[in-house]
Amino acid sequence: MSPENLADLSLSAFETVVGSTPGFRPRPGQHEMAACVAATLSRADLGEHPAPTKAIAVIQAGTGVGKSAAYASTAIALALERKTRVLISTATVALQEQLMTKDLPALAQSMDKPFVFALAKGRGRYVCKLKLERLVGNGGVAEDLFDADNDAPKPAKFGSVLSQEEAEERRIRLYETMASMLAASSWDGDRDSLSEAPDARDWSTVAAERHTCTVRHCPRFRDCSYYEARTRLAEANVIVANHDLVLASLGMKTLPELDNCLVIFDEGHHLPAVALDQFASSMDMSNLRWLDKLPKILQEVSNALQLHIGEDVATVTSQLKQALTQLARMAMDMVWAQTGQNAQGEGQDGTLRFAHGVLPEALTETVTQIQAQATGLSKALEALGVEVKAIAKEDPAQATQCAQQYAKLGGLVPRLGAIVSTASLLLEHGEQPLAKWLQAESEHGYLTMTAHACPIVPGDLLRQFLWSQVRGAVLTSASLTSCGSFDYFLHEAGLINNPNVQALEVASPFDYATQGLLTVVHTRAEPKQADAYTREMVAELMQDLANVECGALVLFTSRAQMRVATEALPTSLMEVVLVQGTQSRARLLGSHTARVESGFASVIFGMQSFGEGLDLPGKLCETVFITKLPFAPPSEPVDEARAEWLRSVGRDPFNELVIPATGIKLLQWTGRAIRTEDDHAAVICYDKRLVLQSYGRRMLAGLPPYRLEQRKAKGP
Q: Angle, to 10 degrees, between the axis of helix 694-701 and the axis of helix 659-670?
């Protein structure tokens, strides 16, 4: 079938779906988006092909367009016709839940052809039955094999012995309960389906891990929770995953091969940040007791299976520990030389970034030693692991023992791997620098020194590792443009100047000029005069909050700013305001909803996480207050390193990075106001730079066309 016919077929599937939806209102933007998805994905050549055509659509779809119906119905129909699969990747759990519990079940009811959908999760979300059985058999006592947190600081330095005993008892009860539920088939081994979320440390001890798994040679492989979930994925036509898992799975067979399926990245504006996280590396130089156990574990495994270790593991491990301890001391001195001392004369926590990504000469020799020693140990570990797997394959009678011995080795692999990758990146010097830094953190009287390294341009990573594989994809979000242009996102996502990419902006069906009002308040103080501005803004905010009759949201740019506003609340507003962090997000939103639905005023004070993905339609949010333009000055080491590099090559990081990133954030923040075609809401911004500065006007041009009003601050 030709690409044109495929596109027509999938678009008609979309039309059938929306036509059969009760109470459906035709949305030209949704149809336009579906047509773009159909045309794009039908052009892509999948599977073996001498010169495959690639096709990628970048679609900004404003609030209310109905993105998921537009892309899901179209892509699924196309995949069924082409006998391939659809991978839908999101950034948040909330959207995953919406797709799995609402959108996809509704589509399955209304589409002509049946399809199966499944949620993909990382291996660590599933229990390892072999580990659990071993622990329950040992009365819950973790041996070296499973001792996941043996290096972690004790949670209560001054805690009683009884509290530690209670923690151990809780752990034993948890493991025994898990084992009995598995035996009774009342639990599927998925952490998320437990009635209560387990403590992270308790779970990590029994979680499935790639490095501790002998796969088919494990005696529990046939009823492994993770591989049962993998089987369900293999049978699914539609797989829902998240950006982290998609990028972490590159080069593995966890998910469908990206050159042989159709890919949708919803909440696509998060993809660049996730890429940086995925390719960052760090190593802990403080908690090294696991290294003392490494030679012993290797010897135990080799003895148990009568194998030989070629490397002098004990000597190399001792040298590695010495080198890491030496590096930790030097790092501590360097960080403390910068952060100074606290009142007790002790060094203070902090971060030291190496300018231009250049590792100081004083550290180079030690880091080089660390890299060589850790690499040698990794190879010895890998060689022994290969032999253990070979025995399990050749002699099934030893499969259980091999699986247990392999798991002992596997617990060491990620730790050594982190040292090898971090040391290698610290020593790397290319045309484009990496961000490299040291960090000192103390908690409960314990000091942890870590070293970090990370690439600084996400687009390069995505171009090299993701887009080199993807054939047909759609990236979509309500906020992909900044200041009215796709350029910033296309740069960040590694898609700029790619001939296979087309960008489409689909307008929201909302009538913003009628439904919304944007008021910019002119304070006397300049926003850069932080203290004076905050005082004046807070006074103005308090007067405006007194007029709130239903639901409202106040978005702050810093905790300090939110604290000043909270402390300034008059008695009459104290019962009205709910502050982020004082209770769980779910409980806070529940309280807010209950108040508004009961006819009371309710105001949420929130930070960045409340400025995105929060859906409060109608009376739940009739006003959004923006306390300051949400600039994020380069304070993180990666942001600082990137800004430094841009300046060094004659470019302006403020114009190139800060303004566009702020423009996207402002688009998200204002997007909390109008959520449906029936909403009427106001946005009040207290930062006059939005209309007075040229960069502010650029951001304003990228916002929906609200009616604009300006007013002077009333003053005290």
A: 50
| pLDDT tens readout for residues 315-342 | 999 999 999 999 999 999 999 998 887 6
pLDDT at position 606: 96
* pLDDT tens figures, 490-512: 999 999 999 999 999 999 999 99
Handedness of CA 159, 161, 165, 171 (dihedral sign): positive
Structure tokens at 457: 């341009």
Other CB atoms within 10 Å distance of the CB of residue 655:
12
- Residue 67 CB partners (closer than 8 Å, separation 6+): 33, 59, 61, 266, 476, 478
Q: Are 463 and 271 in contact (CB under 8 A)?
A: no
Contact 45, 52 (CB under 8 A): yes
Residue 116 is classified by DSSP as -
> Which string of DSSP letters, residue by residue, matches 638-679?
HHHHHHHHHHHTT--HIIIIIHHHHHHHHHHHHTTS--STT-
Query: What are the residues whose beta carbons fall under 8 Å from the beta carbon of 312, sequence distance 6 or more?
Result: none
Average pLDDT over residues 370-377: 97
CB 712 within 8 A of CB 543: no
What gap in Å lies between CA 475 and CA 260, rounded to an integer?
17
Q: How many Å apart are CA 92 and CA 613, to the nearest integer?
A: 9
**SS (HEC) of 548-573:** CCCEEEEECCCHHHHHHHHHCCCHHH
Whole-number Å distance between alpha carbons of 31 and 23: 17
Q: Beta-carbon neighbour count of residue 661 at 10 Å?
A: 17
Query: What's the angle, vertex CA 464, arms to CA 61 and CA 487, rounded to 5?
Result: 35
Nearest alpha carbon to residue 72 among 39, 99, 45: 99
Q: Are 549 and 601 within 8 A, CB to CB?
A: yes
**pTM of the full structure:** 0.90
Task: Give pLDDT, residue 716.
Answer: 60
Number of helices (H) and strands (E) in the chain: give both, helices first. 28, 18
Q: Report the candidate in 330, 351, 327, 321 with the shortest Cα–Cα distance to residue 415.
A: 321
Q: Look at residue 153 and tell me whether its pLDDT is greater than 70.
A: no
Percentage, residues of the chain above pLDDT 70: 95
Count of other CB atoms within 10 angstroms of residue 598 = 8
84 pLDDT band (50/70/90 cuts)? very high
Cα gap 198→142, rounded to integer Å: 16
Name the band, by pLDDT with cuts 50, 70 and 90, for residue 216. confident
pLDDT of residue 163: 67
For strand 551-555 and strand 623-626, is the pairing parallel, antiparallel, or unpaired?
A: parallel
- Record the tokens describing residue 167, joined without a space: 């923690």
Q: How far apart are CA 716 and CA 152, in angstroms?
A: 52
